[in-house]
Amino acid sequence: MILISNDDGISAKGLDLLxxxxxxxxxxxxxxxxxxxxxKSSSITFDHPIRAHLIEKTERLTRYAVSGTPADCAKLALxxxxxxxxxxxxxxxxxxxxxxxxxxxxxTVGVALEGVFHDVPALxxxxxxxxxxxxxxxxEPLIRHIIERTLEHxxxxxxxxxxxxPPLGEGGKYPGLKITRxxxxxxxxxxxxxxxxxxxxxxxxxxxxxNDEPDNTLNDTxxxxxxxxxxxxxxxxxxxxxxxxLIEEQLKL
Length: 253
Fold this sequence. Notes:
Shape: globular
CATH class: Alpha Beta
Strand order of the largest sheet: 3-4-2-1-5-6-7-13-8
Number of strands: 13
Number of domains: 1
CATH topology: Stationary-phase Survival Protein Sure Homolog, Chain: A
């Protein structure tokens, strides 16, 4: 069994493509948010019940629309909806990059991290176009390659893969993939100030990502800008081990 979720919602085109690919490898369960849930990271729902609406069930495919966050979807499927532990958890294909520090905010990556927490190999896929109607046929060969190698070899414990595809357009072909780290940077000009018809201020999230190391060949943004697919191993343990002796020395009583 392969479990699939996303943060763009149950009707997203990227989810449909990833589901079609996964069905060539195993039975599939999709548990995806009822509505668009981008930017929810690993947030979970405490303040109201979560409902799972069965929208399709065939011999090889089961699909649920879940009234929660992306992490809720993965948690609910792993704890309640699945009858067996999945061989693989897939997330995406997200409409828009989840590269650089954006992966911290990403519900797509949040889904994959739930796989890590449950010791299930997990892959998060994103495509560098926010157009909800975007076609992604150029992604399919490398998605299949990554799925097949992961099914064959697994992943290091505690690690999931964050995979980003630059948009190439019809007939495009990627030169290959690069194993990268997340680019260091930040979002700038993050909000736009507006005034509503009643004269009240409000703010709309906007901005753009500013790469602090544009010439560093280790980072994902460098290679995405050059047409390569980036694959970044994400480690769920956020402890910065090299700092531990320094902090211990600073804080000792």
